[in-house]
Every structure is written in structure tokens, then in C-alpha cells.
Amino acid sequence: MRVSRVLLAFAGGSLFTAASAFAQPEHLFSIANASAPPRIVSNELIVLLRSNGPSPEEVVEKARRREPLPGLLGTGDPIRVDFGIKRRAKGVVRQRLLDEPDRPRARLERYIVLEYPRSTSLEATMLALEGDPNVQSVEPNGRLHLHLSPSDPLAAVNADSTMYQWGIHALNLPAAWDLVKGNAYLGLIDTGLEIAHPELRAFDETGGVPIFDGGPFREHFSYDYANSTPEAPDCVVDEVGLYRGHGSHVSGIAAARTDNALGVAGACWHCSIMMMNAFSPFSTFVKAANSLRDLVDHGVQIVSISAGQAGVTCDSPPGTFTLLCDTVADAE
């Protein structure tokens, strides 16, 4: 399956949708409300190594053996060093990336994540790393926050709108369904989903024997980055306060089983959902980047993430959002 264009919209207060024919690469990634600097999560820094210096594999391996790091990180003592993108390129793909180090996908291979003790001054460490000849850029591993509610007055609940899907009528989807009902691999980076929900589950296992139920969830293309476990069955509804059910809600709007005389109708009748659980309750640049990279590797055609960080765009000063911007550029 060829990915002709991947549309993404990260927003502090909006979820954007666009036709691919009108999307320009420099506009594929946007953050609303340019006002606040990146928030730092824990004590982690994202470092992009230069292509002519030590390799990420060399740095990570030495760090794991607690050996001195090669010509790098002379200030501070990180307590953990890991790859920015964990699924590493191999074979001919890796060789091609080494031959073309300026490609976004090649840069993704050169990111590492450094975690420091709580007592470490990240600001001072960042300044020192920026002066290291082996470092191309440094950024804090900031938080991405789920969108809660838009400020637009007409987006608020009015009258008895809880009793019908006003959204599909506002979009005039019934007329669109007369022409096409939709068929695509849809990637969601969210809080997971309720895999046993009759509108979402692919298989009904209530009788002890899995029976195909026609739902959109594709377990084999999903992953739980929020809890760092590889078992997709753990890709469930987030349990944290206001965010509980967000991923299931978004999944249902996009692709709940339609024309089954049950519950709601999804906008896309025949879409498959690839869920990347990346929020618990917030995500990070690293989790979002790994989620998007996995989706692209598995042939995603559309990606939705209703989250972002105020005040940051890919036009911001270098070292503020480079990992995610390179991931989006690679997806494009």
C-alpha cells in the first residue's frame, strides 16, 4: 500500500481536516495559539546527533554498559540513554539512510533520548550540548495535551443534541454516503480504545471462541506506547479523569460499525482503525513520534491526533520541536 500523502493536524484547540490535494508539506504540521514555550516532562532531553559523529548505536551501547560516552555529553551524567525511534532501520533500508543523511527518515535514526537526575539543570545541560560538535540539535521532551473543549460557542451542547449525531448531518455525510462509504487504514494516536465494544471490536469472544464481528479495530497494527507493553489487548480506554473514553469516542466518530442496527454510525463505513495508545493522560514528543513512525511503516493512509502544545510550530527556533517535525516530514 503506497502512502501518497498523510494528513495530520496537531492543535491546542482544534482538529483540522483537509483534502490531500490542497495540503502543502509546510502546512501539514501546525500548533495553535503561539504563546507558550515547550513544557518539559520529567528530566529528558531529545538530542539529534550529527551524521559525521558517533552513531546512536555506539552511544546507546556504551551508555548501557556504563562506559564513557564517545566524544559526547561531557556535561552531566545521564541516568538513561535510549534511541529516539526504537524500531531501527535494518539491511538495505539502513544503508540507504546512511548514504542520504539529510533525509527526514535518516535524521530520525540519529535521535537519542537522555534522562537526567531530578537535580540536574536541564537548561544548563541543553546549552552545553548545543555547543557539542557531535550534536545537531537539542530539545526537551515536552508534553502533548489532549484537546478538551473548543472555545467556539456553537460547539457547546445545545438543546437536546445528545439524542442524535448532529455532526454527520452538519457535514452532510448521508449525501456523501450515496457516492462512497469509505475504505482506508485510519491511524489514531490517542488514549487507546475499548476493544470489546460491539461497535469497535473486530472479533466477538464472549462465547469463548473468537468470531469475526465486523468491527474496525485492527489489533495487529496497534500498539500500547502509553504503558510500554507490546500486547495490543492492553490498548484500552484510558482510566484518567476527563480523558476516559476519548480514544473510543474518536474511534466511534471515525469508523464505528455502520448499518448494523446498533448504536451510532461511523463516518467511514469500511475503515480499519490502527490505534496507537500514547496518552496516560498526557503523551510526549517521543511517544507521539514512535506512534506515527509505526503507523507509516504499517501503511497508514490517514492519521488523527487531537493533541498538541501551544506556541510551537515547525517554524519555531531549531531545537524546539525537531523530532516531531522530522517524523511528520518523513510521513509526508
Counting DSSP H or I runs of 4 or more residues, the number of helices is 9
| Low-confidence blocks of residues | 1-38, 148-157, 230-234
Radius of gyration: 21 Å
Query: N-to-C SSE series?
Result: EHEHHEHEHHEEEEHEEHEEH
User: What is the global morphology?
Assistant: elongated
Give the DSSP E fraction (strand runs of 2 or more residues). 15-25%
Helix content: 10-25%
Set out the fold topology.
Blueprint: E1 40-49, H1 56-64, E2 80-83, H2 91-99, H3 104-109, E3 111-115, H4 122-130, E4 135-146, H5 166-170, H6 173-177, E5 185-190, E6 203-204, E7 211-212, E8 223-224, H7 246-255, E9 272-277, E10 283-284, H8 285-297, E11 302-304, E12 307-308, H9 322-331
Parallel strand pairs: 5-9, 5-11, 8-9
Antiparallel strand pairs: 1-3, 1-4, 2-3, 4-10, 4-12, 6-7
Helix pairs in contact: 8-9
Would you kindly provide a written description of the structure presented here, covering whatever features stand out?
This protein has 9 helices and 12 strands. By secondary structure, it is α/β, with parallel strands linked by helices. The strands form 3 sheets. Strands 1, 2, 3, 4, 10 and 12 form a 6-stranded antiparallel β-sheet that branches. The chain has a 4-stranded parallel β-sheet with strand order 8-9-5-11, sandwiched between helices. Strand 8, helix 7 (246-255) and strand 9 (272-277) form a beta-alpha-beta unit. Helix 8 (285-297) runs parallel beside helix 9. The protein is elongated.
